[in-house]
# Entry
Amino acid sequence: MRLKSFQAQTLTVHAGSAGDSLYGGIVNPIYPAAAYDYVEEVRYPRYFNTPNQKAVVEKMVALEQGEDGLVFSSGMAAIMTSMLAVLKQGDHVLFQHDLYGGTHYAAVNALNRYGIAYSMADVSDLKTFAAALRPNTRLMYIETPSNPLMKITDVAGVARLARKKGILTMIDNTFASPVNQQPITLGIDIVAHSGTKYIGGHSDLCCGVVVTSKKLTEQIRQSALIFGGSLDAQTCWLVERSLKTMVLRVQQQNENALAIARALEKEPRIRAVFYPGLKDHPGHRIARRQMPGGFGGMLSFEVKGNAETFLKRLALIKRAISLGGVESTATLPVKTSHAKLTAAERQAVGISDRLVRLSVGIEDAGDLIRDIQQAL
Ligand SMILES: Cc1ncc(COP(=O)(O)O)c(C=O)c1O
# Structure
């Protein structure tokens, strides 16, 4: 049977996990070597071609339905290395305006220093997004669902627009995870992840992944071996282990998040709930089409009272940055992911001081809802 014919739940377990040919063990060994015989292939951790790195990549490539990819030491290493690999001085990048705070910060503070221009535009209306294109636009960069307001970008629409004009597309697929959304099947060129989130899934490692075509992987690898953001064998092995349970984790997180969003909609002490699985979410129709696996484990809501007090009162849900772990965590974007934005920039993307972002874990949904209700 060909690997490609299997479903995600089978691929997460078996792709890239050939086992141990020396002793017949059914899991991949950890190969910590940083020095290899070079006769067959010049193998080296910073060349992104050691056995444990390749095992992670094989699983991710199978899940994202790409051709090849690379695993990095962090999500930002994956994102910035890929961008700088396909861009050069004089190019322009068009970003959707609501981005993960770290990517926003990198765009504003790093790209201009390399002579790369950028702009940010509202992608909820594709015509507005298209109007921001310039003759030298080389890359369109999107993120959906977006952080922290869970706005939905029409992935296929952006890909169509870019292809017509010969522009590359890149997406941050962290929030959706490959379980819920496969952007390459929708026409996107480069898919990046902060693997620190759903891919790692246990809040105990940091990594990044890029999946794309063979040609672009080689182009990105040439930059990656200069910038050097490779991942060590032990962490790769943990990532591979985590990926085997990702479908189960994310399915539970999808179900929990939907149950919580529906319960919070009825709460009089909550002003608004942002979750693409809710029928009245503005992106619901598109999300249903482009997220066949589910709407994800991330949601946000605005409380009517003091958000900091609310967070302090949570007993089960932990106050913590990052997301995608088996344990539920909450943050105030104004203090965390979007703290580096000015108040005006936050206002422009609709992030208020009362906004709470929730990363839903795999606990019992009823327990989580009761915790939120008592804190309110
Ligand atoms: C959506 C998104 N993209 C990228 C990143 C950056 O990933 P990392 O922290 O692994 O570098 C994060 C981190 O929070 C994120 O939330």
DSSP finds 14 helices and twelve strands in the chain. The two ends are 53 Å apart (CA to CA). The chain has a mean pLDDT of 96. The domain at 246-375 is CATH 3.90.1150.10 (Aspartate Aminotransferase, domain 1).
